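> example.struct
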């Protein structure tokens, strides 16, 4: 029997829906084959899945289990496919389909069947909604993050066994409800405040003008005059982020794993202050599997380059495109990715 479930893979700051297909056929030697351009973390999922299924007291058939992640030309990264693979494998073994056509499922499995949080859940929930899915099943710790998206039901699960019972209709789970507006307003607080600065009236006036018009700012002065202190408080006088801006900024921090577990939604403008020894890839973004850099992490916020003359000339030159266009395009042989980078 072939079982099909739906999950999603991250590509840049967005997600792409992935079909998880599992076929079980008889053979003398048990084996799990994962195809569909998986990376090392996805290939290793077979060992986590087998252990989790056993620990969850679910039936796993002998023979060869073939796992196909479609589309096959999209690289699959990370452990977020553990949960859908395990559910599809158990379903195919029992020859019993699951009621999951309207579901998008993500989650990393521990060896005892517990479900661990993953990155990029906000982007995955947006993609599930775009593809017409009505429900998303995510790790319980990621449920508040996914619930930010309206128009889709979010179910947080703690274990593989709980997810299996839920999809078979044997154990109901209440959808996670988040009052987005109330959450947005209650968490719109900064640790520092521009009002704390005493004196410095001319500098404060310059900062207010820059914040009002979204202008860049160059501060020059001897050490100890308060340049860094003022820069850290710059975001507190900028206009409040709209919900759309907050979602866009949260997506970037979510895929990099920098989102605070206690605050599933980024409601304040980010402040990033990279060290002057940072590389081009660290500032602009890149790597083998391109990810966002500091200019993207500062999207809709403040990028503070302390000790500006200490930065390498080449590093500063690469900032021309994001300053002019408000985004960064990183090209590799496998394709190009664009990351937003509109900052002060």
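> example.seq
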């Amino acid at each position: 029997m072939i079982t099909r479930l739906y999950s999603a893979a991250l590509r840049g700051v967005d997600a792409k829906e992935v079909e998880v297909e599992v076929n079980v056929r008889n053979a003398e030697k048990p084996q799990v084959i994962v195809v569909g351009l998986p990376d090392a973390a996805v290939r290793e999922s077979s060992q986590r899945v087998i252990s989790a299924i056993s620990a969850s007291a679910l039936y796993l058939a002998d023979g060869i289990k073939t796992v196909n992640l479609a589309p096959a030309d999209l690289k699959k990264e990370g452990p977020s496919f553990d949960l859908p693979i395990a559910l599809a494998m158990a379903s195919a073994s029992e020859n019993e389909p699951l009621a999951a056509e309207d579901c998008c499922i993500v989650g990393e499995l521990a060896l005892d069947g517990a479900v661990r949080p993953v990155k990029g859940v906000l982007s995955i929930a947006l993609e599930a909604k775009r593809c017409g899915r009505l429900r998303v099943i995510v790790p319980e710790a990621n449920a508040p993050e996914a619930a930010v998206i309206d128009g889709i039901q979010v179910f947080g699960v703690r274990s593989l066994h709980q997810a299996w019972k839920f999809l078979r209709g044997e154990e109901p789970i209440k959808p996670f409800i988040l009052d987005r507006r109330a959450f947005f307003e209650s968490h719109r607080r900064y640790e520092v405040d521009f009002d704390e600065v005493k004196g410095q009236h001319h500098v404060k006036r310059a900062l207010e003008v820059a914040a009002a018009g979204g202008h860049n700012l160059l501060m020059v002065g001897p050490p100890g005059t308060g340049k860094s202190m003022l820069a850290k408080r710059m975001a507190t006088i900028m206009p409040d982020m709209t919900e759309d801006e907050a979602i866009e900024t949260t997506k970037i921090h979510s895929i990099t794993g920098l989102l605070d577990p206690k605050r599933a939604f980024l409601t304040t403008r980010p402040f990033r202050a990279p060290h002057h020894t940072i590389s081009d890839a660290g500032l602009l973004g890149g790597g083998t599997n391109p990810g966002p850099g500091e200019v993207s992490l500062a999207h809709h916020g403040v990028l503070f380059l302390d000790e500006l003359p200490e930065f390498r000339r080449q590093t500063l030159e690469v900032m021309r495109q994001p300053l002019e266009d408000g985004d960064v395009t990183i090209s590799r042989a496998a394709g190009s990715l664009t990351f937003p980078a509109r900052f002060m």
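> remarks
Residues 50 and 86 are 8 Å apart (CA to CA).
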